[in-house]
Write a structure and sequence with these properties.
Blueprint (H helix, E strand, L loop, with lengths): L8 H12 L5 H8 L3 H13 L3 E3 L7 E3 L2 H45 L3 E4 L2 H13 L4 E6 L6 H16 L3 E7 L6 H12 L3 E5 L6 E4 L3 E7 L2 E9 L2 H17 L1 E2 L17 H11 L4 H8 L3 H15 L4 H10 L7 H5 L20
Parallel strand pairs: 4-5, 5-6
Antiparallel strand pairs: 1-2, 3-9, 4-7, 6-10, 7-8, 8-9
Helix pairs in contact: 1-3, 9-12, 10-11, 11-12
């Protein structure tokens, strides 16, 4: 127990030896304790520093113990004073913590009364998401675009998912089909499934989105730049639309597959969801870079998918590919063509005045 007074084990044993043999020399201590001289001198230095042993005035080279009633009582009084000071500091810290908790709660109550909240900076966004997750009780709905998830994202997601699961919160997460290109991300998604959550994939997602208990939603200000900031929405009207969007995407998405690449077309003239999305995005005039980002694939992969589609359609331009996809019923056209996919309409004269410009 004397270690609580700041004494090491060796120092306690050496002090006891000097108490038992007042006037003992350092050499005799080495023989008595059967320690190396260096160990004896180290313990002796500590005892001298703590005023428990002093050199003899009458017999130089020998040691005299300071009586425990003096030396140890002084150490005990010093430790008690430090303990009381520590208690005072802890009391002051407790008061300060209570004040900060109260002030922060007041700020959050004020912000929660507003229907929208703007968050800027990655640190602030992550902190806000952690807080919303901590207060989530029933469900967490999530869009996760970008294809394979980063190692940092997966590492942060595991403890968060565990915390939510311990409170009975069920997660519904939608990833891009391109997640299958990253085995580690697929393993993480399957871990979510084993933890009692639900995971599906789809060809494209509009942006990252988190909906907590269908009462608060976090979406990025700029879908292509997460560092630009985020918005928190609490408006009943906005939440209803965001939840409806999630439900529609969820209904069309496919449960996470055990296969490496699910959802291959059954027929040659059919398209995968990813291919349909490419045609739709190209029809909207989006660049290769934006299309690849929406799919969660590299620009090179996106261009390869586009080139393969144009080859299957016999198209020389992207606009022509979109027109022929409609004619084949791949993107929806009139009812007759949709009823007979793969059967093009009457051939178009590519040189006529009505033909689209090549390029």
């Amino acid at each position: 127990m004397l270690e609580l007074l700041g004494l090491g084990k060796n120092s306690v044993e050496l002090y006891r030896a000097v108490l038992a043999h007042p006037g003992i020399s350092v050499e005799d201590l080495v023989d008595t304790l059967k320690w190396p001289a260096e160990r004896v001198r180290s313990a002796l230095d500590e005892c001298v520093r703590l005023s428990l042993i002093r050199p003899s005035w009458e017999a130089p080279g020998t040691l005299r113990p300071v009586p425990p009633s003096v030396g140890l009582q002084a150490l005990l009084a010093r430790q008690e004073a430090e303990f009381l000071e520590r208690q005072r500091q802890m009391t002051d810290a407790r008061v300060e913590v209570s004040r900060l908790v109260h002030d922060y709660a007041a700020v959050q109550r004020e912000s929660s009364q507003t229907e929208t909240e703007r968050i800027e900076g990655i640190d602030e966004i992550r902190s806000r998401i952690e807080e919303l997750s901590h207060n989530c009780h029933d469900s967490l709905l999530a869009f996760h675009p970008g294809g394979g998830q980063s190692a940092a994202s997966r590492a942060a997601g595991r403890p968060l998912s565990g915390t939510l699961q311990s409170r009975g919160v069920v997660m519904h997460t939608i990833y891009l089909d391109s997640i299958y290109n990253d085995p580690e991300s697929v393993d993480y998604a399957r871990w979510l499934l084993r933890s009692g959550n639900h995971v599906r994939t789809t060809a494209s997602l509009p942006s990252r989105m988190l909906i907590f208990d269908r009462r608060q939603a976090v979406v990025p200000i700029d879908p292509d730049d997460s560092a630009a900031g985020a918005m928190v929405f609490r408006s009943a009207g906005i939440l209803a639309n965001l939840c409806e969007l999630f439900d529609q995407v969820w209904d069309k998405a496919v449960p996470l597959s055990g296969e490496k690449r699910p959802r291959q077309p059954a027929e040659e003239n059919e398209l995968t969801g990813q291919e349909q999305t490419v045609l739709r995005l190209l029809g909207e005039g989006l660049t290769d870079e934006v299309v690849a980002r929406r799919l969660g694939v590299s620009v090179r992969t996106g261009r390869r998918i586009t080139a393969e589609l144009m080859g299957r359609l016999g198209a020389k331009s992207r606009f022509q590919a979109g027109m022929r996809a409609v004619e084949y019923g791949w993107l929806g056209g009139d009812e007759d063509r949709a009823a007979h996919p793969g059967e093009p309409a009457e051939p178009r004269d590519e040189n006529s005045a009505d033909a689209p410009e090549q390029g």
